[in-house]
Amino acid sequence: MELLFEMAGWAGAVAMLGGYMAVSMGWLQAGTTFQTVNLFGSCAFIINGTLHGAWPSVVTNVAWFLISAVALLRMRSKLRTAEPARIPTAAQVSPSLAPDTAAQVIVAAARPAAGCA
Predict the structure, then answer these.
(1) Rounded distance, CA 11 to CA 59, Å?
(2) Which of 78, 82, 87, 91 lies 20 to 30 angstroms, CA to CA, from 104?
(3) 69-117 tens-digit pLDDT
């Protein structure tokens, strides 16, 4: 069981350092993926720190977990209230590759009659 806790600690380290590096290098935007990685990493460090009695690390990672959890909840609520789903109009629907079998109507613009004098 101790090996499992050690593996959790190393997995947390890889997750948090990898996420930080990805955002710092511009490979990843600081969004939901980054916050999820931080959430996972902090949970892993909390498990590992508790096993080793490293209480300053546990407290720091509980704070890290709470920050990530609140950030994810705020992002989720912004997505829900941002904009209601719209039903696409005919102009927004992508064209099908199937042949068009719908009847088409051609409307000619009214032209003034040319006078012959």
Answers:
(1) 19
(2) 87
(3) 999 999 998 888 866 666 666 555 555 555 555 554 455 555 556 666 5
